[in-house]
Structure formats: structure tokens, C-alpha cells
Amino acid sequence: MAYERIHPAEYAELQAQIVAIEHEQSLTEVTNLVAREAARTVLDLRVIHRIEYLLRGADKGEKKRLRALKRQALRSHDRLGQINEQFFVTYRQQITSRVYAPAAVRQRLCGYAEPGEHEVWSDPPRYDALDTFIDGILQIPVLPRAQRRPEPEMVYYQPTPARIVLDMVDRLALSAQDVVYDLGSGLGRVVNIVALVSEAKSIGVEFEPAYAAQAECCARELGLARAHFINADAREVSYGDGTVFFLYTPFKGIILQRVVELLCDEAAKRRIRVCTYGPGTLDMVQQEWLVSVDADEPSVDHVAIFESR
Ligand SMILES: C[S@@+](CC[C@H](N)C(=O)[O-])C[C@H]1O[C@@H](n2cnc3c(N)ncnc32)[C@H](O)[C@@H]1O
Question: 279 pLDDT exceeds 70?
């Protein structure tokens, strides 16, 4: 296979991109997260990946120069990452010392979401600077090693984009009387975001012990007293206190059917709301005991909100 050789003009162009980022003072302002994330993406996708590709076809002399350029890009990338880290540490301290009320946290998060022209669900979904911020302040690590073997109808972990969670919280207008369950809560993003930006109690139910433990640890370290996690199969939990149930397509088939039955039983006792995101929305649309409260037709692309009849 013949690899592409680097053209001197491209070398200069790659170097110019790195230097432009290094010299952009605004990127060092700690709160300028969106621009910093955009610059990190350029370094990652347009510079470092390109250099790695060009290295395959380079001769000895070119390799030396390209490797030096790659090191320069990586340094720049790391430096921006360190500024992010400082920002997250400071904001975490402010959260733990209760500097902000939920509404103020919500306001701050607003600034980092990057709404696309049309929200479209994909696998994986689109994540943006808000997700980097959320992962930074919640200190969500790389996925811990799973301890239990999932059943075939259980869906693997994939977090709901934070802007989607915020949109749901805004539309639900949660109060201190609400108890929000995230069924299949993974590393606890939804539950912990709900606890950060609302007065509601939030409870995650997660099958995988390592994920549930990580989520719990994150909530305790941030002092999110209203966030709780249960390590259990969602079919085996009693939902007597729940007012809102969120499902980002966590399971399918018989498991979903059983959990829907449990929610339907709860709905027979009091009014509940069920929120879905992703392909699982199509299953919920068919439930006759639920009615959509959205102005638009429920779709996989946004959180669909249903109310029990
Ligand atoms: C698509 S992820 C959603 C994660 C989380 N809700 C979020 O948005 O960040 C699905 C999660 O459901 C969990 N899960 C699958 N089947 C489950 C079950 N029967 N009971 C509890 N959790 C389950 C998986 O382990 C995985 O973490």
C-alpha cells in the first residue's frame, strides 16, 4: 500500500495551526471552555491524526520533523487540558462549599452547550463541551471494568448528552417533591446532573456494581445529598416513591416489558411521568396507559415526556 508523502506546504500549514493555538491568549482564560475544546479538537483530529497518517509514508528525515511536530501538538493539547483541569477543580470546590444554588449551576451549564441545528440521535450521540465540563466536575473516569456479565437484552453503557438531560429537566419543571429515577443509570451522569440543577431527589438503578459504585462515589464526593444509587436489576426494585422515570434505552424485549409493567402498576396508584431518549422511545409510544405531553410527536432525537393517564 502506497502512503501519502508530506508536501512542504502541508508541513508549514500543520505547524501554523499549532502555533496559532499556542498564541491564542483567550484560550488560557479558564472559563473559555468551548473555544478551548474546539482548539483541542483541531489539534486532535486535524493535526495529530494527520501527522500520524503522514508518518506512515515518511522517509527518515521527514519522520524526525513530523515527530517533533507531533510532540509540539501534544504539548499544546496537554496544556489546554491542564487549564480545563484547573477550571474543574475550582468549580468542584465551589459546588462542595455550596456557593451555587441549583438555578445558578443551571445558568452556568447553559453557557457550554453547543446546540446543533437539528438534534439528531446517533450511536454514539454527539457530545460537546458541556459533556467535557460535566465529566470534569463529576470526575467521571474511563469506564470501570465490569464485574457482572450483562444479559443479551441489556444495553451497554453510553451516557446521555448533558444538553439532552438539561432540556429534560427544564421541561419537567421539577420540584422538591419529585423523585426522579434513572433506570440503567450507568456512571450516574443523569442522576448527578438532576441533583446539581434541581431540588428533586434523584435515584439511579444500575445493574453493573462497578458503575453504581463509581456513581455513588462521585455523588458523595461532590456532596450531592439528593442523589442516590441502587445496584440492582431494574426489574427487582420497588418504585413506590418515584414521580419521574427516565430511560435512555437501557434494555429491550422481556426486560423492558417487565419494567414497563412495574411502572404501569405505579401509575395505577398515582400520576407519574416517563421520559425516554433514543430508540426506546418507540416502545414507549405504544403504551396505552401513557400519553405524550410534548408539543411535537415523540421521536428518538429528543427526550420524549409521557404522563400516565
Ligand atoms: C444506554 S446506558 C444509559 C446510562 C445512563 N442512563 C446515562 O444516560 O448516562 C444503559 C445502562 O443501563 C444499564 N442496564 C442495562 N440493563 C439493566 C437492568 N436490567 N437493570 C439496571 N441497569 C441496567 C447498563 O449497564 C448501562 O449502564
Answer: yes
Q: Provide the number of structural domains found in the chain.
A: 2
Question: 89 and 204: one domain?
Answer: no
300: its cell numbers: 428518538
CA of 272 to the centre of ligand 1 (A): 21
Does the C-beta of 160 come closer than 6 Å to ligand 1? Answer: yes
Do 198 and 81 sit in the same domain of this protein? Answer: no
Whether 133 is in the pocket of ligand 1, judged by its Cβ within 6 Å, is no
User: Cα separations (Å) of 146 from 42, 103, 207, 231?
Assistant: 33, 35, 10, 13
Ligand 1 site, residue 189, Cβ cutoff 6 A: yes
Per the model's pLDDT, the better-predicted residue between 265 and 140 turns out to be 265
The span from the CA of 162 to the CA of 123, in Å, is: 15
DSSP H or E stretch at residue 257: helix 253-269
- Residue of the CA atom closest to atom 14 of ligand 1: 184
| Atom number in ligand 1 closest to CA 146 | 25
Q: Is 185 within 8 Å of 138 (Cβ atoms)? A: no
Distance CA 240, CA 197 (A): 24
| Alpha carbon of 16 to ligand 1 centroid (Å) | 44
State whether 73 and 215 are in the same domain: no
Supply φ then ψ for residue 174, to 5 degrees: -70, 150
Residue-wise pLDDT for 50-92, tens only, equals 999 999 988 899 999 999 999 999 999 999 999 999 999 999 9
